[in-house]
## 1
Amino acid sequence: MQRWMDKKHLNDNYQKLMAQVYNDPDVREFLEQHQADLSEETIDRSSAKLYEYVNARDRLAAGKTVFAPGYQPALIINDHLIDVTYSPTAEQQEKMRSQTVRQRVNAVMMPKMIREANFDNFARDDQRLAALAAAADFTESYESNPKGFHKGLYLYGSFGVGKTYLLGAIANHLAANGFKTTLVHFPSFAVDMKNAIGDNRVAEKLDTVKKAPVLMLDDIGADSMSAWVRDEVLGVILEYRMQSELPTFFSSNFSMNQLETEHLQITQRGDEEPLKAKRLMQRIRFLASEIAMVGKNRRLD
């Protein structure tokens, strides 16, 4: 083997390569710090690890492909030998933190823009300040005492005034501080619940929503509602959350009074059931404070 290496000049190349490794400032500093623990034999036996460290560090600095993307190497002593350990870079740590935060927001059939929604980018005009202030008050109150009962918000107004965006901003703010939120586009969820009947998954899907630590029901009243969805889906969700005193938010184009008289009390079949509508509205009023949002349609900007 030695003769073969000499013939191919591999031995000289290896010696030159390792000379560069041993003269590397980081390697020299590590060896000096641990000279009491390392013999020449130990250093020689660990040459491959020293090379791995220098190679991985330099490739990472140059933006090249590395063995563990997003992780930076470091030299350690392991079982009396030199070894290489990998820890996440600052960029990787931020990526992991962002992923963790995103996982705390369960968005069910919601627009993608709510993933990036935040208070800083919410339009601060006079017509929206009350809603923004109420959102900030809720997050501060909830974060200081998450086990207490906190009324959510019932945001209503015309199309494109930022109701859904504000819900997303609240959810993302809570997520950044360690709290989980579920946002549901209610008309789409109602369709999904009807489809779940054939799969016998109604109870499972309903439990996921009704037991969410913080729940946001978006676009209530956007579509006509069957008696079954009203009573066995929305009614069950509201009853559970009222009894459990769980924070609940709503967005709608209807005011609370309009939602009761123009939507909830009239079924798809045209039947009027004012008592059932009133019962649901009592629960909504218990769970949330009504706030009007007005302004231009920002979806058209």
## 2
Amino acid sequence: MAPLIVDTDPGVDDAYALALAAHAPEVDLRAVTAVFGNVDLPTTTTNARRLLGMLGRGDVPLGVGADRPLIHPTTGRAADVHGDDGLGGVAERFGPLGPEPAGRALDVIARVLGTSTEPVVLAAIGPLTDVALLLATRPDLAERIGRLVVMGGSVGVGGNVSPAAEFNVWSDPEAARRVLVEERVPTTLVPLDLTHEVTVDRAWLDALAASGPVGEALAATRTVYARGEGLGEDRVPIHDAVALLEAIVPGTLATVPLEVEVDTSLGPGRGTVHADRRGRAPGGRTVDVALPDGTDVDAVRAALLERLGTHM
């Protein structure tokens, strides 16, 4: 089983993602780290504890990460999408509380990377602040990351927090640029271009709710989340779960190697990810960008329901 770390800002779709990771037979969930993002850090930390407790993974170390971006402060959060509690207004359905935090996120991640005898998969499904700090302060551990899977960005369909920017990247563009442009860790980027295609409908959510307590709690988040995402009542995206499925089963999503750039200006384009489709420049760093072309979105949707519906 591949060792897996999930850096997350729960978050409704983060809850789906953690449910996927908790008992996937292909991976060994070695740590979860909470970062600011959809809601503030104390809430994302509590939500991570709720999810680990409900999923029966109290054995997984929980690290507490960054509570703000690297450079420019932002007060933007996504309570309008995820609810004030981060879990669609139904956080009380998730629990009991799992483990107390085991320390700082950077220390928890470094411990896993430093002791693993196999390359570790790092799934980053919130702002990339923790990952950027790790790579900046512990460059010796970069080679221990076999693959970084990032949910973030939009390379052609427009943004969800501004006309062009996606929330995770927009929350800390400097961190995103460090990770996606300056580093050399093998990276798969799962943008809105794909996650907006792998949406789920009412029948899918009803089937999930009927599967058991975990599925029922996840499906109960739909009211606030569907309204906040603004894609229509019968079209709910679960962005982070799509990225986690790719982290668990590499090759689930079709990818194209592209050079990317992140707009770190303070203007209206801040947080935009630009993908260069003209071809790879000699020596240029590419990331594998997951796109709808070549991806069987119906199969992805079905796989998510099958895995989430067989929990407990």
## 3
Amino acid sequence: MEYHVKDEALAEKGQLRIEWAARSMPVLRSIRERFAKEKPLQGLRLSACLHVTTETATLAQTLKAGGAEVRLCASNPLSTQDDVAASLAVHDGIAVFAIKGEDKDTYYRHIHQALAHEPNITMDDGADLVSTLHSEKKELLRGILGGTEETTTGVIRLRSMAQQGVLQYPIIAVNDANTKHLFDNRYGTGQSTIDGIIRATNRLLAGSTFVVSGYGWCGRGVAMRAAGMGAKVVITEVDPLRALEAVMDGYQVMPMAEAARIGDFFCTLTGDIHVIRREHFEVMKDGAIVANSGHFNVELDLEALEAMAVAKRPVREFLLEYRLANGRCLYVVGEGRLVNLAAAEGHPSSVMDMSFANQALCVEHLVKHAKTLENKVYGVPEAIDREIARLKLESMGVAIDQLTDEQEKYLRSWEMGT
């Protein structure tokens, strides 16, 4: 079997870590048990471009249990856990092409290798796989039934493709499922982003000013966790509704031009380009720490910072110091890439349980219904979303009420008023 990992000797360590993650993923485990019996993905070739973590490994094992031939590559050059990649290749017979810290050429070569078996289904996190298919591997498009997309940035790109009429097969936006973005984006990103920043810097958040750029679900999660650790949280936004919500949630809201002068920590979570730019770096405090938890590192204008710096050096693992001409030093975490994966281990497995349950069930849905779907971006079927929530509650030992016949009749009627 073809694969490319850093070191096969890491496989034993990776296997133990995968087993530990799986203990907190009961929903995906129940799906895997059913898939192993029913084989709903039998004969399917699936190419996945995801962060190669312990949780992703559990998803890959589930897809293989369902009968799929899985090829996996990384969706970010710094997000791969090398021991996990080795374990999947050595112990599970899954073709993995991922090495932490791989350069750009290797990253795209791995994407091509993940597509080499001519997939029927794609599974993406950021839409690099889909983009490569539509630009460089068009001959493979005719064999594809559909795909799934994990993250906000990828959904934005795919909707743009659909609007322009260039998307050649249906995609389910897993990111938009309530059991994904309301939990993974908020609680997962919130905890793991703070974890990555602290691991890289070992700085105290309490009493500091923490600037969060973007108040979507990910931004909400980071703001919540930073505030919980005692930081004074400042929000920057371009959307008046989200800015108003941040004010109502008790945070200061101001333009980045003002926040740049007072922040001790900065974290971007917008999905847009150059959110922190030269004019912001120019006024930051000496010692300011800058991180990004959006999918791509373009949220930080690192080229401008490179041009401003008179010297650059690594001072800790995943922490670069940029010394400016006036003697000030600014610090960038994880090369500006996804800080929760570049400098930490990504989302906790209990929250990824729901996200990846969505992935597995949406692939099954595509196999059953792809012929009736158009070449556009679809939401996760409500029945799947609700079933995942039900299974998660059940695994947590939580029971809820059910509507009585009288209540159901009332909700269906229009005659009954005051």
## 4
Amino acid sequence: MKIDASLAAVVTGGASGLGLATVKALRAAGASVAIFDLNEEAGAKAAAETGATFAVCDVMSDDSVDAAFATARAAQGQERALICCAGGGNAISTIKRDKETGAITVFPTDKFEFVVKLNVVGTFRCVTRAAAGMATLDAIDGERGAIVNTASAAATDGQMGQAAYSAGKAGIVGITLPIARDLSRFGIRVNTIQPGLFATPMMLRAPQPMLDRLGAMVPFPQRMGDPVEYASLALELLRNTYLNGETIRLDGAIRMQPR
């Protein structure tokens, strides 16, 4: 896939972090980009800074996702590229003992369910809409579109308290190959990036000593990833037509410890 002025792309979670870095990389290459994000203020600011289109989007809602794609397509035409960066998690132990009373409490099921839906169902919701639109396009060099999803190192080595987040991200890894096979007949590719520790705005809220310790856990290079490095891989997954159905770790060879 050529990334130039002829390409229209959508980036979910594109107002910050890995998503915003990807928006900037796509725009630098000349592509038209629509930012989907739930944060209206951050989304409008990112769109103004990059020259992208912004659409408010809640990936948990069919209606919101459909409306966002309609806004994007009205502004830039049918997208051939989708990069899904929207997601999130929480940190709750499966069960917990109160230190004072000794009472045992369980991970609230609704909070577990929310995180799984946000990550895997939210991603799948966007993938289906984009793929349906891409399938209507004429193929270019045999290809109609490409999709990049975002999982996490937690999908395969989640830490304590990450049961919900790990489940949601593992779900994204799990759907990658079946979706790639489903969409192969339409000339649409699907790949997933599995990032490790990245210096996103959310991560950088932590105290500097903690950030230093986290960076030192990475075998090489001993630092957290730069969102620009995520964006670089995302664009390569769009460009390289033979990459399909793959999940690629981008983590400096880290394997997360239990805590």
